[in-house]
Write the structure tokens for this entry.
Amino acid sequence: MTDRVPEPSLTVDELAARAGVTVRTVRFYSTRGLLPPPVIGPRRVGRYGPEHLSRLALIEELQHQGMTLSAIERYLDALPDDLSAHDLAIHRALVATWAPDSAEEVSREELEKRAGRPLSDTDVRRLAAMNVITPGGGAGGFRVDLSLLRLGVALLDVPISHGTILAARRVMLEHARATAHELTRLFRDEVWGPFTEGEDDPERVESMKALSAHMQPMVVQALVTAFQRSLKEELKAAFAGGE
């Protein structure tokens, strides 16, 4: 049984409003090839779907990282062609971990507005377990990580228990921290050390810091792609007996 993919249903004006950009920006990105073309519906009206919305969010996050449009274009070209809106949301969420804290304090009403749906107490607990929100803002509000909110809301409808979410989060954090430690050690010993050894040139040091900052999105892309491929292989092996 395959997952049902929502039909493209947004006009260009609706897409721009949902993404928080202008119609002109949407059309500019389409011209640059950063967005796939819309589905042409009745009366020759272009319709956009969740993939377009997630791709716009990813582009916005990459821009926040300081990447130029040319660099973003290369980044997107390197992604697999069959990425779903959910896959793109994962990319965006992980890329956002390199950025400064994007949390904002919001009320329950504003949280539901940002989520685009009513949230039950169970939904709130699940979002907190995923570290998307933190209860305790002023007047019973929340601190919400806007970079993770869309992905977290999408996962609310996945039949996973609260305990399983906490266990999965623990596994992810432990392995992510170990990977980050090893990558940092490798960069320090094999790149940074030889580059700066015996040198006292501030310009060289600054250029290496700039290189480090620009490497971060590329490292995230490599990690996400490797994880997705490994996960597909593991799931296929784990459930092969049920086919």
